[in-house]
TrEMBL record:
Residues 1-16 form the signal peptide. GO terms for biological process: antibiotic metabolic process; glutathione catabolic process; homocysteine metabolic process; inflammatory response; leukotriene D4 catabolic process; negative regulation of cell migration; neutrophil chemotaxis; proteolysis. It catalyses: leukotriene D4 + H2O = leukotriene E4 + glycine; an L-aminoacyl-L-amino acid + H2O = 2 an L-alpha-amino acid; glycyldehydrophenylalanine + H2O = 2,3-didehydrophenylalanine + glycine; L-cystine-bis-glycine + 2 H2O = L-cystine + 2 glycine. PANTHER family: DIPEPTIDASE 1, MICROSOMAL DIPEPTIDASE. Belongs to the metallo-dependent hydrolases superfamily. Peptidase M19 family. The keyword Lipid metabolism applies. This is Dipeptidase. PROSITE patterns: RENAL_DIPEPTIDASE_1 (PS00869), RENAL_DIPEPTIDASE_2 (PS51365). Keywords: Cell membrane, Dipeptidase, Disulfide bond, Glycoprotein, GPI-anchor, Hydrolase, Lipid metabolism, Lipoprotein, Membrane, Metal-binding, Metalloprotease, Protease, Signal, Zinc. It comes from Capra hircus. GO terms for molecular function: beta-lactamase activity; metallodipeptidase activity; modified amino acid binding; zinc ion binding. It is found in: Apical cell membrane; Membrane. Its main location: membrane. The gene is DPEP1. It comes from the Eukaryota.
Amino acid sequence: MWTGWWLWPLVAVCTADQFRDNAVRLMQSTPVIDGHNDLPWQLLKNFNNQLQDPRANLTSLNSTHTNIPKLKAGFVGAQFWSAYTPCDTQNKDSVKRTLEQIDVIQRMCQLYPETFLCVTDSAGIQQAFQEGKVASLVGVEGGHSIDSSLGVLRALYHLGMRYLTLTHSCNTPWADNWLVDTGEDEAQSQGLSSFGQSVVKEMNRLGVIIDLAHVSVATMEAALQLSKAPVIFSHSSAYSLCHHRRNVPDHVLQLVKQTGSLVMVNFYNDYVSCKAEANLSQVADHLDYIKKVAGAGAVGFGGDYDGVSRLPSGLEDVSKYPDLVAELLRRQWTEEEVRGALAENLLRVFKAVEQASDHKQAPGEEPIPLGQLEASCRTKYGYSGTPSLHLQPGALLASLVTLLLSLCLL
Ligand SMILES: *[C@@H]1O[C@H](CO)[C@@H](O)[C@H](O)[C@H]1NC(C)=O
Ligand SMILES: *[C@@H]1O[C@H](CO)[C@@H](O)[C@H](O)[C@H]1NC(C)=O
Ligand SMILES: *[C@@H]1O[C@H](CO)[C@@H](O)[C@H](O)[C@H]1NC(C)=O
Ligand SMILES: [Zn+2]
């Protein structure tokens, strides 16, 4: 060989920089749209949603994976912020708590108008790209947030919700979660109940993206089959590479491919390597794998920043996306494939969801009278306890009278 051995390390160093430079160049025109970030949860936990607390200043906040300088360094151009309320609020104050998380997202946009632009459609994302701002959208994480009400679903849509994750890590009365597949929870709906099907149809009608992160495999299959529009996994990785039930199995990746849907890869170590430790290269393996099985059009990013306790070395916070993109370029992804994973794939899905929506069609009404809706799972009277504890004295009296009357009629 004409080159000396000493030249190769130099070549390696230079090309490494070149991939990073190309990543940055690409991201200047096509920044990343991330599917899931839990900063609003951190704001609640650490500051009780008091955004004016000087410690919560998003410019200097440094206890989180996300802050304004890191978003800028990471070329984040759009973020679905998670409006999340834990499963233990189900049948209690989940609706109120969800509204408060939507409120804190909207206040972020108001307080930092130079950085965030709250938008509710695909055109809004593109506008934010042009203005160099972070398009901010609301993703509601967990079907318990609608408290089994199509009315609440519609109202959340009007407040800006543009995806709903059908479950968090608990069943709703109408959809099963991933813990059913580990045996920790019992299947209740075998996927989607008939009310669950009405929820999916109403989401299609409204133009809310169906998110299948956190749901059981049967729920994935049912929703992929029923939905008129493509769906997303806002923060899930590939089951074949790490056998965790939060990840997407191969036969579902086939359905993703057939429906033009999207898997936004989660960076949480436990879903990437199934171990406490992971690295950037292993996340790239998931992106490669989903591309191989479902096509480059099915790949996206859903880092789960500020929702997880352990992140891969090389992807410690939201400033690191360009390093991951450089790794994809190193693995010979084409520019078009990279732009797809960064933003174009999500824009394609979102536009298809918008096109499939039909606001002229009459709203779906509650298919079952509220009082009868899976009464065993749902307390109509709000706060905790079994429904019987909350029977009003009047209702109790009425039941007794009815009982006596029916006895008389016998
Ligand atoms: C955050 O801090 C910066 C400077 O450190 C200041 O200019 C800005 O007004 C603060 N923003 C809020 C909302 O407190
Ligand atoms: C984080 O910010 C606080 C004040 O906002 C500052 O006192 C502290 O030194 C910072 N820590 C790091 C690691 O930058
Ligand atoms: C990432 O982790 C894997 C598995 O531990 C290891 O084989 C690989 O060398 C690591 N890659 C880098 C770049 O550190
Ligand atoms: Zn989650």
